[in-house]
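Appendix B, Record 12. Input sequence as logged:
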Amino acid sequence: MNKEYDNTLGSERTVETEFMLQILKEECDSTTKILDVGGIPSDVENFGKINAHIAAESLNYEVCDFRGGKYRGDFVGYDFKDDKFNLVVFLSSLEHFPQCTEGDMAFREGEDRRGFQKALDILEVGGRILLTVPFGKHVWQAYHQNYDAEGIRKLTEGSTVIQSHTYRLNGSESNKLSGKWVLTDPETMDDIIYTDRAYGCGCFLLQK
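Logged structural output:
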């Protein structure tokens, strides 16, 4: 990952999609079984490069989402039977698990941890998890969980961190598309919360 990125997509998607594309290129080929949890984005236009790469490389890429995909339903409770995966992707999805679905705003303590543990359960030995989340002060806010380094450590128990990149969005208050995402020490980001958008983003690759 680069030290900084122009905020070309106007949100944390700027760094998240770069990270996901990098991992797909480095970690995956047509034999890799990939499961994208919550993989029906509302901002489809921001995933053009990722979708093009998946198609060009004929990646074995499936979706688990309550709105659709091969595995349609609630991820935590879904019965995958004997299906196992080499890579599970949580691209800005796991932080929503305390409320579970778009139509249910009730907070459920620990639902994100249950989601991560479910991902570990359905991974092949040595499988990996791609995780991106809003990052800064560890606090629950309506619709979003915001994590810090300790929150990530607790969330991802049972796995080993392979890659960790945390970014702060600088200089975008007046123009959503302005500013830069700058690689930042996670211990210095506890002043960041999710307001009108994410101003901090964490990108992690973890191994079972």
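Helices lie at 13-27, 48-56, 111-121, 149-155.
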